[in-house]
């Protein structure tokens, strides 16, 4: 299954959690407006005491309980839909990947190039077992994401209040500047959901996107490899595209042997010699490659390797575009949050910055010839 198909399959789940994340950030903005935060903090600049600002902090933090309950209700409304959708997604990803190759397997068997004829995919206990394992894992992952969303939502609100007070009392910023800067920070960072081993914190959108695409890729690859084993088909070809990341580029557009020992034909390197199995490697996290069975004596090599220099340039251009797309989404969140807080000036400022990033995107895509990915610029 090609990369675009994988993206489409995970699209619904990613959009669902984008909606949840945007709603949680909107809840924070509404709570700040509800309590007259900006107005009150500006008044504090005119000579109110330290005790007053600390009283404001206490009162605002007392809203953590009601805010948590709002978040739980919002997530619960969508949790069953998300589980049903991920089961459908995994089933389609797995069986689509398997079924697309049945034709060549059957032809190879009829020609005597393969000597095993397994049961149909829908009757394969091994394939069903793989799918069930991924469904169980998906259930655990979604529960973890949902609980992390609640704690991340609390972190955003708590940080806005505490950082505003700390910067104000230290005399670093005015109350209005402090709260504005902290809201901007979280508008761009999003609701934190996961911190990895490198201590990088992932937003809900970024983490769910990575998890769903990885689930899709992994179930498709594992079921496809299992089907190859059922037929005793021991060769594969990797796809190729310009702009492949460094961990994948050396291994794309090649034919590999994946059976025991070395290639009995003496032609192809072993699949184990690639970066397969590494997070940033072939078929790893967010990888855009796929593999196809290759039957010596029947298959024709399909993919060619792009020029290495052109690939590196395209990869760099794509990273620039992704950066600008994230900036657009961040300023859109700023615009929405300040609008909910009732600050027209900051709303207009965020809108102007968003339009500036759009101009940069238009210039970049005109220069590189890459298409605009409007879906990556949207918030819900």
TrEMBL record:
Matches recorded under InterPro entries: Phage_A118_VSP1 (IPR009319)
Single annotated GO MF: structural molecule activity
Tree of life domain: Bacteria
A Pfam family this chain is assigned to: Phage_min_cap2
UniProt protein name: Minor capsid protein
Organism: Salinicoccus roseus
């Amino acid at each position: 299954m090609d990369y675009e198909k994988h993206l489409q399959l995970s699209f619904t789940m990613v959009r669902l959690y984008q909606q949840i994340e945007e709603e949680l950030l909107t809840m924070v903005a509404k709570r700040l407006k509800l309590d007259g935060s900006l107005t009150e903090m500006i008044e504090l600049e005119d000579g109110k005491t330290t005790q007053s600002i600390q009283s404001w902090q206490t009162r605002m933090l007392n809203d953590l309980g009601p805010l948590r309950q709002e978040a739980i209700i919002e997530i619960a409304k969508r949790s069953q839909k998300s589980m049903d959708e991920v089961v459908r997604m995994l089933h389609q990803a797995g069986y689509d990947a398997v079924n697309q190759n049945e034709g060549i397997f059957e032809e190879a068997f009829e020609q005597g190039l393969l000597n095993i004829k397994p049961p149909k995919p829908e009757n394969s206990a091994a394939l069903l077992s793989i799918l069930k394992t991924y469904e169980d894992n998906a259930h655990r992952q979604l529960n973890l994401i949902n609980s992390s969303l609640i704690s991340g939502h609390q972190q955003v609100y708590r940080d806005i209040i505490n950082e505003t007070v700390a910067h104000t009392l230290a005399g670093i910023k005015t109350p209005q500047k402090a709260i504005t800067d902290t809201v901007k920070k979280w508008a761009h960072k999003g609701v934190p959901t996961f911190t990895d081993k490198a201590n990088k914190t992932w937003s809900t959108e970024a983490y769910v996107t990575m998890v769903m695409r990885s689930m899709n890729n992994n179930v498709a690859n594992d079921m496809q490899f299992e089907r190859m084993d059922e037929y005793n088909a021991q060769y594969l070809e990797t796809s190729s595209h310009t702009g492949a990341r460094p961990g994948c580029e050396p291994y794309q557009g090649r034919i590999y042997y994946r059976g025991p020992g070395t290639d009995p034909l003496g032609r192809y390197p072993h699949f184990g010699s690639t970066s397969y199995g590494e997070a940033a490697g072939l078929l790893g996290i967010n990888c855009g490659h796929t593999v196809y069975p290759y039957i010596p004596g029947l298959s024709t090599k399909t993919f060619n390797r792009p020029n290495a220099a052109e690939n590196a340039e395209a990869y760099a251009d794509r990273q620039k575009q992704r950066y600008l797309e994230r900036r657009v989404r961040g300023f859109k969140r700023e615009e929405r949050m300040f609008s909910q807080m009732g600050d027209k000036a900051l709303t207009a400022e965020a809108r102007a910055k968003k339009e500036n990033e759009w101009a940069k995107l238009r210039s970049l895509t005109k220069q590189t010839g890459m298409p605009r990915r409007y879906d990556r610029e949207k918030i819900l």
